Amino acid sequence: MAAPSCSTPKTISLDETRRRIAQWRQTRRHRHVPMPAALWDAAVAAAKRHGLYATVRALRVDYGALKKHLDAAGTEQTHRSAFVEFAPTVTSAPPCVIEIEGRRGTVRIRLAALALDDITALAHLVWGPR
Length: 130
Hints:
By secondary structure, the protein is mainly α. It is built from 5 helices and 2 strands. Helices cover 45% and strands 11% of the residues. α2 crosses α3. The chain is elongated, with a radius of gyration of 22 Å.
């Protein structure tokens, strides 16, 4: 039985990607053969349109592996904005603007009256604890 074609047009649907991956799984010789790059590209394109988690569930691929492929593709995932409110405390910092630059752009935060502890908590929220 011949292996499925692995060319990946950008407009391929999630159902078509699911079908192609299923066909590849049925025709591979060994269970631990890596999935072809063209199929990963199709999965990445689907994740850009439908989101990472929904694509992982639909295609039955490993979440971590698809995330690595998304990151390697330089994909900007859609991020939902989060509003974080800090209760004013004794201020020890004057009003300021903080700019955080990252791979996906710059975030500008205007602070009127926050304690230094609140700024530290904000940094942990953005970058995680060190």
